[in-house]
Amino acid sequence: MVIRMRTRRTVFLVLLTLLVAPRAPVAPHAQAGGSLRLYIARHGETSWNVEHRLQGWTDIPLDETGKKQAAALGESLKGVRLDAIYSSTLSRSRETARTVAGSTMTVKSLDGLRERNYGHFQGGSDMDPVYLRRANAWDDRLDDGESLDQLLARTRESLQQIRREHPAGNVLIVAHRITNQMALRALLDLTPEQTVKITQDNDEVYLVEIDPGARPRLWKLVREKNLGDL
């Protein structure tokens, strides 16, 4: 079952296929006492994204399209009173987050939110058949890199830190494609199979609402280019 809900400027899609909420969904702008809303964004585009190269810990800056995507993210969240903004320590994530923060907020960067270390494959093609064969084996460190199990563990630690520092309110997290998969697995208790099927573009943002005594709810910002998701 899919429920669609429109605001004046954006369209949000709540995916009940992943959740079993005990009550009717609440619109993203509604404020519930003690609720935490985590906006989970991916950094803007880089030249290596366009070239289909695995960036991992390689510090590649945003390209011009990525800078526009960061600005669009800030515009989409303009009506949200953010209490905190977190990024990874990689510049593509920090720059995206700082664009949203503007001059009024600071960005806290966490090592644990960095992208997966692709080890032997870092800098290579994300279409490499050897990489594709090994990428979703949860215990495979890709030779001298990092396994998905290791990435999940450090992502959990970062989320725990964020939730200790902000148990309620609105928090933006700007991280990376695979890191955000791990965040959604940790928050929504997804299976490994569900987790690796998540595909988040550079200009996409999710919202996870966490209320005391209720299962988390997942929302997705739907832009004009992906109205087909509806």
Summarize the structure in words.
With 230 residues, the protein is an alpha/beta fold. The protein has one domain (33-229): Phosphoglycerate mutase-like (Rossmann fold, 3-Layer(aba) Sandwich), CATH 3.40.50. The chain has helices at residues 47-50, 64-76, 91-101, 129-134, 148-165, 177-188, 192-196; strands at 2-6, 11-15, 36-42, 84-88, 107-110, 169-175, 205-210, 217-222. It has an eight-stranded mixed β-sheet, sandwiched between helices.
- Provide the CATH superfamily: Phosphoglycerate mutase-like
Secondary-structure arrangement, i.e. CATH architecture: 3-Layer(aba) Sandwich
Number of domains: 1
Q: Strand portion, in percent?
A: 15-25%
Q: How is this fold's topology laid out?
A:
Blueprint lengths: L1 E5 L4 E5 L20 E7 L4 H4 L13 H13 L7 E5 L2 H11 L5 E4 L18 H6 L13 H18 L3 E7 L1 H12 L3 H5 L8 E6 L6 E6 L8
Parallel strand pairs: 3-6, 4-5, 4-6
Antiparallel strand pairs: 1-2, 2-8, 3-7, 7-8
Helix pairs in contact: 2-3, 5-6
